[in-house]
UniProtKB/TrEMBL annotation, chain A:
Protein name: Menaquinol-cytochrome c reductase iron-sulfur subunit
Pfam families noted in UniProt: Rieske (PF00355)
Keyword match Transport: no
Cited InterPro entries: Rieske_2Fe-2S, Rieske_2Fe-2S_sf, Rieske_Fe-S_prot, TAT_signal
Assigned EC number: 1.10.2.-
Occurrences of domain Rieske (ranges): 63-159
UniProt keyword tRNA-binding present: no
GO function term, MF aspect, one: oxidoreductase activity
Transmembrane segments: 12-34
Alphabetically ordered keywords of this record: 2Fe-2S, Disulfide bond, Iron, Iron-sulfur, Membrane, Metal-binding, Oxidoreductase, Transmembrane, Transmembrane helix
PROSITE patterns for this protein: RIESKE, TAT
Naturally occurring in which organism (per UniProt): Geomicrobium sediminis
Automatic annotation (TrEMBL), chain B:
Protein name per Swiss-Prot or TrEMBL: DUF2487 family protein
Entries under InterPro entries matching the protein: DUF2487
Organism of provenance: Geomicrobium sediminis
Highest taxon of source: Bacteria
Family annotation (Pfam families): DUF2487
Amino acid sequence: MSEKNHNVSRRQFLTYTLMGVGGFMGAAMVMPMVRFAVDPILQADAAGDMNELTALSDLTEEPQAFSLTYEVEDGWVTQTMEDTVWAYLSGDEVVALSPTCTHLGCTVNFGGDENNPDQFFCPCHFGRFEIDGTNVPGTPPTEPLHRYDTEIRDGVIYVGRPQPQQ
Amino acid sequence: MRFQTSDIDTYQQSKAYVDTMLVPLLPVALDDDLRQKVAMGEYISLVTMEMEKQFRGRLMQLPPLMYLSSESVTEIGERLGVWADAFKKDGKNHVIWMTSDPALKQLENQVPGLLLWIPHLPIEHLDPNYRSKTIRDQMQQLLPDVMAEWRKEDSL
Ligand code: FES
């Protein structure tokens, strides 16, 4: 067969192909933008989600570990997650701290170190935190324990997600 | 930390803090006992995950180390020794081996590092909430052993 007998010339073929590819590339660029624009609307609710922790009357001045269950939606899959929250009363204020060590992520315990019964202790590299979450200088962590936003409704404590405190 | 790309940057920046390898041991045999083997493997994987969660800043969890159930315990023990030597060369001070296999219980005091023999509980029949609680309770019981291991400066 000679070149002339082709219904689609090489040039045309290339043009079509490139247009096709270009179209896909264009779509690939625009789609995420559309998603970014729309997504926050869909997720606004999730970010503000507060989950029930425990009854206010359960709290004491001494931090206690409570377990927090909440749902995470990842695409079409909903997963139930479980976290531990250390909560206590400081005067009238509810303090709820995350047990994740800010050094490399091990789990801290309150009073875990015999010599420092009033502090949070990380067994991994002996990181320590004051009761309000402040990292003890001279131990590996360089940032305080993250703290949960809290809300009290009808004697029940609700918490959001842990946030860095400075 | 886990053996996955998302954890490797952290690992490389903080290598000196990660002095322990965490290795689940998995028996494999496609025999009549298959069901039991799979259940043991599943259980150990879950407890290992929980351990990683608790101590992720100091541990590197490796993919499971498989062995044939037909291998002799001595052979398996020797193989663990080879791995332990390699970890030591890389500057690690501790290995935690995780197993539910009754056959390996006798290795408890023979292999380098800490061999945690954890009897398999049939949690596959439990309700998911109760299942995670069982795993966490199991983990709590292991804590003192891990702490004791870490009190040894260097056990390899
Ligand atoms: S992970 Fe807590 S001190 Fe290092």
